[in-house]
Structure formats: C-alpha cells, structure tokens
Amino acid sequence: MTLSVTSCHDRDEWNALVNSSGGHPLQLWGWGELKSQYEWSADRVVVRDGDDVVGSAQVLLRRLPAPFKSLAYVPRGPQAAEADRARVVAALAQYVKNTHGPIGLTIEPDWEAPFAPLEKGASDDEIASLVARPTSGWLAEVEAAGYVRSDNTGLIPHTLIVDVTRDEDTIMKELSSSTRQNVRKSFKAENARFGLVTEQADLDQVLAINKETAKRANFAVHSDLYHEQIRDFMGPASQLIAAWEGDEVVAFVWLVVSGKTAFELYGGVSPRGMKLRLNYGLKFWAMTHVKAQGVERYDFNGLLNDGISDFKRQFAKHEDMLVGTYDKSLSPMFPVFATALPVVRSTLKRGVPAAKKTAVSLKNDPKGTLVGAAAGARSKASDVRAKRADAAWHRLD
C-alpha cells in the first residue's frame, strides 16, 4: 500500500506522537518553534500506512540565498521502526519535494549504527573503517531509496549514551574509579546542592558561566535571549540543572528531554566548581534526575578529541555511534551546494547577507572558488574547531 504523508498542526498531538514512538527531544514541537524564530520554519509530518502511523518527522526548512531556495533538515529524526525506515524516508522525501521544493533533504536520525556500541577510546581511523564497510539490512534499504551518507555533519554521530534504566549502583560502577571518587566528594561538599534552575537570577549566573566556558574552550554561544527562548518554547522538556555553593551557581547542564531520551544541549563549570569537583556530581545527579522521570537514555551529545569530551568519557565504559548524516538530493543544484557546504555554513552563521555573497561566488565558479576556500578554511583551523563549527551550524543563527 502507498504511504500517505500529512502535516500535523496540533502541539499536544505531535508531542504525544514523538514521545510514544521513542522520539528525540529535538523532534518535539517546542524545538521547531524555537528554530522558527531564526530563519527556519517547521513542518511536522505524519506517515501512515492506511490507518496505522508508521513514521513521523519534524522537518526544519532553512531559507537559502538564490539560487538555492531552501534546505530541508530533520534533526535526530525521523521516527520509524527498523522495518519501516526505508519506506518512511522515501515517502518523506517525496512529500518534502512536492510541498516545499527544497534543493535537498538532510536527515540525522537517532538510529544506532549497525556496528555500535564502540569500545571506549575508539580512534577516528577505527570509526572511519567501520563506517566504510558495506551496509546491509534496513540501512542498505535507506541508501537504495536515494540517501547518501555525508560528512557534512550537523549533529555529531559519535557520542556517549548511558542506559539510565539500570539501578544507580550499576551506573556508578561504569564510572572510572577517580570519577566515582569525584562524584562522591562533590556530594559531600560543604554548602553544596544540586537542582533545577527556576529563578532568573540563577539563569543569569548560568549564562555567565556558559560564556566563560565558551571562551576557555573556544566555541561560540547564542545570545541570552536564545537561551531564554529554549526555556519558554520547550516548556517542561527544557530542564536546566545546576550545582550551587551557597547562592552561587558553579556548574550547570542544560537538557532537553523527551519520553525516552535526555539530550545535553550545553554545559559549563566555573573555576570554583572545578575545584570542588561539583561538575562530576552534577552529571551523575542529572542522570538520576531523568531516570526518575522514566527516561531510558542519557545522551552526552557528541564526542570529539578535546578536553570536554575526555570529561564525558569518564562516565561510561563504552562509546556510541549513530548512523550519521544522510542527504537526499531533490534538485540538480544540491550537489553544487553540498560541495561548498562548510563555507556556506560558516557564512550563514554570520548572517544571510554574507551567505548571499558566498552563493554568488558558488554560482559563478561552483567547482573552483568555494572548494578552494573550503580547503583553505579547514587548513587554517584545527580539526576540533572545524568540527565544533559544523556541529553548531543548526543551532547558531
């Protein structure tokens, strides 16, 4: 039977569908509302086989300068059972093409790679070798539907996902011995506490720590308004957790939470928080906090070769790998756009006027100017900084 695809316009109905199907927090209604404030629009679509729902996806559409029109993007979606994934993504692409006419559709599903989980400390070369293996089963069927794996990643597929359905002692045993000591030390710290941020004054302290952490780690941050909008648009799905010493916020982790998954958006710690090791206790407290809500997975949101990722790796004995980024070309212009995507991403972060200048260069010299510029940009930045810039593209406006 031919699948039908329709748009959903009811927030409660949509969120119930995402949560009941094990969907990711970035597929919740509020995330689409948030992104719609910043050059995006959202279409929430339901895929049915007769009366049965077999898939769903929140599709974000980003306006692009001429001649590209727009790009369709599904962050950590769609939702579909393994047996239905190929036909769901095929039906989704046809609907997006007919309804919105973008140059292409990019999906970054919350689907585990066939070779996952990974051993702790897996190298980039080892992962690349696993990714290069011939695909089979449902993933081969997705590729047969015209989806091509891409290295132009928005959300990093190499991550750490902790199963929080287990008892707390089991979760604690997976921490390194020094990490367990630091967690216990932080819980005993004098005048320290952990909890949800509910006051504006505490949010202001969080944002100050976020800026200082970004400065230390050399990555960009959103405006204060953007962070406040996460809270407002996501509602209860936005859970900002902090560690205090007295009245001073010294560490935080900002989660978005669906029925099944808690996903770290941001985190940071002050020098005082690092001295007290409260960032260790905070991570463990956050995992137990979402566990109590019935959440099954705690996603640390990406692993790179940097100090922040080294800290994350202390909380499990394994690493995880999702299937990554897949593109479906919907226009003859898409291959040209994809070739220069790293540069276009960079200019989009500086605003549409700059992106238009890049697009003009691409139109005039699609295989020369921008390909060279992309290579130059990569050679001037470290791999970590380049990956962080790419990973931030879908969030930065």
Automatic annotation (TrEMBL):
GO BP annotations, alphabetical order: cell wall organization; peptidoglycan biosynthetic process; regulation of cell shape
Matching InterPro entries: Acyl_CoA_acyltransferase (IPR016181), FEMABX (IPR003447), PG_Glycine_Bridge_Synth (IPR050644)
Keywords annotated in UniProt: Acyltransferase, Cell shape, Cell wall biogenesis/degradation, Peptidoglycan synthesis, Transferase
Single GO term (MF): aminoacyltransferase activity
Family according to the record: Belongs to the FemABX family.
Record's protein name: Methicillin resistance protein
